[in-house]
Design goal:
With 428 residues, this protein is of the alpha/beta class. 45% of the residues lie in helices and 12% in strands. It has 17 helices and 15 strands. A 7-stranded mixed beta sheet has the order 4-10-9-8-7-5-6, sandwiched between helices. Helix 4 packs parallel to helix 11, helix 7 packs parallel to helix 8 and helix 13 packs across helix 15. The longest helix is centred in the last third of the chain and has 25 residues. It is globular. The protein starts with a helix and ends with a helix. The chain binds pyridoxal-5'-phosphate (PLP). It is an enzyme of class 2 (transferase). Pathway: One-carbon metabolism; tetrahydrofolate interconversion. Belongs to the SHMT family. This is Serine hydroxymethyltransferase.
């Protein structure tokens, strides 16, 4: 067959434009990264053509001799990358994404209506950890299980372990979930284990955001204390879009059954091959250096914003790849700064900060350094990025003062402004 360019120029050009966007913008979305060429080659390979329901050696389809080898290789590399003893830990590499990995993990160890406790979404937790609002159960993890979230302290932004422990003593969860989408500090896994044990609960860590740092041993090791560890593969781990579930061997059968046939069909073998490639990379000294630099860059960016410009950073800094910038003292919403940044080719996202009651009108933005570091940026570069962010923020404050509070008016007022155009030109 012919190339994409010849076969479907419309899609080809959209791909080219997105590629250009990714490299001409400053990509600060904390859940994103830039994968290597080899990961993309495996991801776009003929392995996408094959059906292989089941596990290596026990498939529902013929012709899986090579696919079996790919999946076993991926499993081995996953255990090696996270320094795990294969006697104690196993891994399922088939989840299509972090969300399906989490739901499969939950259904593996829980019955319908069993109780779970995860970090609340406005505190930085993920939807799939039992998110519900006062009015509605949003995530299927809250619809099919009874969820009582724990929170961060509204003053410090740090996990309120005491609140979690006292509620757990009343609620008696079957599963405690730790891990977050927007938490810039380290987790106290030993303390969480103790809280879980007091209720006879299992402990699961979702390290989607920090798994690259965990593999590089630049973040605390959740495996020592947890029964299950889930992750996405496309954030700090720098792989294709997918998920992994690590389980203690006693849970092997239940986890594998939960992935297939309970929640998924045929594995995406092209993706599994691409995960294997990323995991090989994650076990190298170069990746360790990358992970160290990701954290140094986040610290440099955070410190420049707080110390040079006096902005408020949630939890007063970061120990990982992300910075939560609290905009509330400026009277600005996360949505407005996000829109302003979009207009100047800086990509980041609005995010709740501690004390925000709702995720719908967040008081801050989340900034990540994984993608910038993949582009070889260092602390000096990240301070320049912080300078850009400062200018963006000042423009946003000025635009808000002249356009009123509504987001639509704000966006209209951005058009054609000389300071916006000048900043966009410099960023690009
Ligand atoms: N878990 C956490 C902590 C996440 O931050 C995310 C996504 O951002 C997910 C799970 C879900 O991953 P996916 O988008 O691949 O379903």
């Amino acid at each position: 067959s012919t190339s994409l360019k010849e076969d479907d120029p419309e899609v080809f050009h959209l791909v080219q434009r997105e590629k250009w966007r990714q490299f001409s913008c400053l990509e600060l979305i904390a859940s994103e990264n830039l994968t290597s060429q080899s990961v993309m080659e495996a991801s776009g390979s003929p392995l996408t053509n094959k059906y292989s329901e089941g596990l290596p050696g026990v498939r529902y389809y013929g012709g899986n001799e090579i696919i079996d080898q790919v999946e076993v290789l991926c499993q081995k590399r996953a255990l090696a990358a996270f320094h795990l003893d294969p006697q104690v830990w196993g891994v399922n590499v088939q989840p299509y994404s972090g969300s399906t990995a989490n739901f499969s993990a939950l259904t593996a160890v829980l019955a319908p209506h069993d109780r779970i406790m995860g970090l609340d979404l406005p505190s930085g937790g993920h939807l799939t950890h039992g998110y519900a609002t006062a009015k509605k159960k949003i995530s299927s993890s809250a619809i099919y299980f009874e969820s009582l979230p724990y929170r961060t302290d509204p003053d410090t932004g740090l996990i309120d372990y005491e609140g979690l422990a006292s509620n757990a003593a009343i609620f008696h969860p079957k599963l405690v979930i730790c891990g977050a989408s927007a938490y810039p500090q380290e987790w106290d896994y030993a303390r969480l284990r103790k809280i879980a044990d007091e209720s006879g609960a299992l402990l699961m860590a979702d390290i989607a955001h920090t798994s690259g740092l965990v593999a590089a041993q630049e973040a605390a090791d959740p495996f020592v204390h947890c029964d299950l560890v889930t992750t996405t593969t496309h954030k700090t781990l720098r792989g294709p879009r997918a998920g992994l579930i690590f389980f203690r061997r006693a849970l092997e059968f239940r986890v594998n059954q939960a992935v297939f046939p309970a929640n998924q069909g045929g594995p995406h073998n092209n993706t599994i091959a691409a995960i294997a490639v990323a995991l090989k990379q994650a076990a190298t000294p170069e990746f360790k250096q990358y992970a160290i630099q990701v954290c140094k860059n986040a610290v440099a960016l955070s410190q420049h914003l707080s110390q040079s410009y006096g902005y408020k950073i949630a939890t007063d800094g970061t120990v990982n790849h992300l910075v939560l910038w609290d905009l509330r003292p400026l009277g600005l919403t996360g949505s407005k700064l996000e829109k302003l940044c979009d207009a100047v080719n800086i990509t980041l996202n609005k995010n709740a900060v501690h004390g925000d009651s709702s995720a719908l009108s967040p008081g801050g933005v989340r900034i990540g350094t994984s993608a910038l570091t993949s582009r070889s940026m260092n602390e000096h570069d990240c301070r320049t990025v912080a300078d850009f962010l400062h200018r963006a923020c000042q423009i946003a404050i000025a635009v808000q003062a002249s356009s009123g509070k509504k987001l639509t008016d704000f966006v209209t007022a951005l058009e054609g402004r000389a300071d916006v155009l000048a900043l966009r030109k410099e960023v690009t």
